[in-house]
Amino acid sequence: QVQLVESGGGLVQAGGSLRLSCAISGSIFSRNVMGWYRQAPGKQRELVASITTGDSINYADSVKGRFTISKDNAKNTVYLQMNSLKPEDTAVYYCKLQELRLPRREYWGQGTQVTVSS
Question: Which residue from 12, 1, 29 is spatially nearest to 93, judged by alpha carbons?
Fold first, then answer.
């Protein structure tokens, strides 16, 4: 059974930094895409950043230049380094893994709260 467990969320002042981690366990396909999503109260869940097993990276425009996604294959862990945080970054952050083969199974973590105070 595949499990994703996020950690690293918390309360930080505007301008501060946090690093989120997503530990992945279980049997997964060797080719996949891992992503960080976030959902603020009353808003839809949105993609923040993603990285493939081939190291192709994508960022939402709102976080470009401030957030960095990376992975440690040996630890089966994906990270999201968040710098220059803004109050509008406040949300629950979720980690997702999608296998790059049919039927493209998706696995989600439970989420971690990030709160940025002004």
Answer: 12
Collect all residues with Cβ–Cβ distance below 8 Å to 74 and sequence separation of at least 6: none
Rounded to whole angstroms, how far apart are CA atoms 95 and 76? 13
DSSP 8-class letter at 47: E
Interval 71-105: pLDDT, tens: 999 999 999 999 999 999 999 999 999 999 999 99
Cα 48–Cα 115–Cα 79 angle in degrees, nearest 5: 40
End-to-end CA distance of the chain: 40
Q: Strand 10-13 vs strand 112-117: parallel, antiparallel, or unpaired?
A: parallel
Q: What mean pLDDT, rounded, does the chain reach?
A: 96
